[in-house]
């Protein structure tokens, strides 16, 4: 079976998931090897924190163990299903971290400021701006633009119509552009301010 | 890269493509296969364990406690109104499980379908607050009384034996 072909990759994933549900230990190891980086990158893109992404990855695969038999291949690929799990875990953790903050923008608290995994400064700045987007725009952009899911797959993960995905992507891009524009007008390399974020949000709505 | 405003989509798209490529290079920490396998086994064991508990030790005392709340008041009322101990009912399983301090015999509960010498029963020891017997005249004092419940295989309590029956009778008679 050609694993570079997405369709055959989905078939392999689905078979592994069925084996996990049947209690095959090796299938769990194999699926983890194949997909843990996808989950890790999604969480890292959402929160810009390696430790956060690591925790999310562990929790997602624990959910896989508990819920493998609930997967329905008619509703989408295993990869999209895993992103759906990762999304719930990520949102839960972001909400939890929000509870322990006062006046800081919630998502900033998830950032590891000294982490510079992405060398290029512009890319780093873009990632920082994405991590500060309102979560409904952020998750759509991360899934569609960065994880390269289709509109339909993104809609499935977000549990909303395709039209809503398109709308969120449009607004998210506009908001991102406004944040980056303001950041560029300030100090070099400065992250866009919360004021810019809110102002841009008003422009979008 | 150009410095065109970000509202021009191509610039944003180009930088998103760069970020996408950079993210592909982000790797999760190395896999610890032994830890993964341990996680798998733990989870499978946890799936099995609750099934065992549900059919066994946890359900039995809960059913017994529920049964005693409904039935013990009626049984005590009978004891108090008669002023004497009921006639003991012989039970095959009673003898080996009788505690040394037991002073009463098992009394069938009012709603019980009865006892059978061929059936097997479990004895569950409970402590019942005297305040639970408010329906029985003269049992308003504080404290608890120890009792054994004879519980059938279906989880229903069939009979009760008060280990401190004399104390209870005294406390009722004193009122």
Describe the structure.
The complex is a heterodimer of chains A (about 200) and B (about 180). Chain A is mostly helical and about 200 residues long. Helices cover about 70% and strands about 0% of the residues of chain A. Chain A contains nine helices and no strands. The longest helix of chain A has 24 residues. In chain B, strands 1-4-3-2 form a four-stranded antiparallel beta sheet. Chain B is elongated. Chain B has five helices and four strands. Chain B is an alpha+beta fold and about 180 residues long. The C terminus of chain B is likely disordered. The termini of chain B are far apart.
Question: Care to give the gist of this entry?
Answer:
The complex is a heterodimer of chains A (about 200) and B (about 180). Chain A has about 200 residues and is an all-alpha fold. Helix content of chain A is about 70%, strand content about 0%.
Multimerization status: heterodimer
- Main interface: chain pair and counts: A-B, 41 and 29 residues
Helical fraction of chain B = 40-55%
Element order of chain A: H for helix, E for strand = HHHHHHHHH
Computed CA radius of gyration of chain B, to the nearest angstrom: 32 Å
Largest sheet of chain B: 4 strands, antiparallel
Poorly predicted runs of chain A: 101-114, 187-205
């Amino acid at each position: 079976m050609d694993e570079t072909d997405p369709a055959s990759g989905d078939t392999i994933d689905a078979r592994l998931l069925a084996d996990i549900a049947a209690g095959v230990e090796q299938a769990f190891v194999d699926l983890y090897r194949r997909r843990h980086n996808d989950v890790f990158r999604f969480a890292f893109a959402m929160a810009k924190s390696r430790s956060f992404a690591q925790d999310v990855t562990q929790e997602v695969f624990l959910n896989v163990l508990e819920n493998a038999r609930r997967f329905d291949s008619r509703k989408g690929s295993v990869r999209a299903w895993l992103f759906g799990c990762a999304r719930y875990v990520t949102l839960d953790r972001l909400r939890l971290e929000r509870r322990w903050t006062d006046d800081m923008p919630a998502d900033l608290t998830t950032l590891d400021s000294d982490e510079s995994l992405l060398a290029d400064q512009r890319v780093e700045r873009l990632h920082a701006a994405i991590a500060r987007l309102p979560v409904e725009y952020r998750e759509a952009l991360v899934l569609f633009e960065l994880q390269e899911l289709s509109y339909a797959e993104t809609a499935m993960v977000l549990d909303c119509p395709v039209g809503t995905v398109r709308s969120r992507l449009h607004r998210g891009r506009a908001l991102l552009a406004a944040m980056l524009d303001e950041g560029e007008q300030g100090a070099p390399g400065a992250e866009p301010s919360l004021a810019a974020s809110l102002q841009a949000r008003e422009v979008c709505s | 890269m150009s410095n065109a405003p970000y509202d021009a989509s191509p610039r944003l798209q180009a930088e998103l493509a760069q970020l996408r490529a950079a993210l592909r290079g982000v790797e999760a920490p190395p896999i610890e296969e032994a830890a993964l396998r341990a996680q798998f086994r733990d989870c499978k064991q946890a799936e099995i364990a609750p099934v065992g508990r549900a059919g066994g030790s946890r359900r039995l005392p809960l059913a017994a406690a529920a049964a005693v709340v409904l039935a013990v008041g009626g049984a005590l009322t009978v004891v108090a109104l008669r002023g004497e101990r009921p006639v003991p009912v012989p039970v095959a399983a009673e003898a080996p499980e009788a505690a040394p301090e037991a002073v009463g015999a098992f009394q069938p509960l009012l709603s019980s379908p009865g006892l059978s010498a061929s059936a097997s029963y479990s004895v569950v020891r409970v402590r019942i607050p005297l305040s639970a017997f408010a329906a029985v005249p003269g049992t308003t004092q504080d404290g608890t009384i120890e009792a054994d419940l004879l519980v059938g295989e279906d989880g229903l309590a069939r009979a009760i034996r008060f280990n401190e029956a004399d104390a209870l009778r005294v406390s009722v008679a004193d009122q």
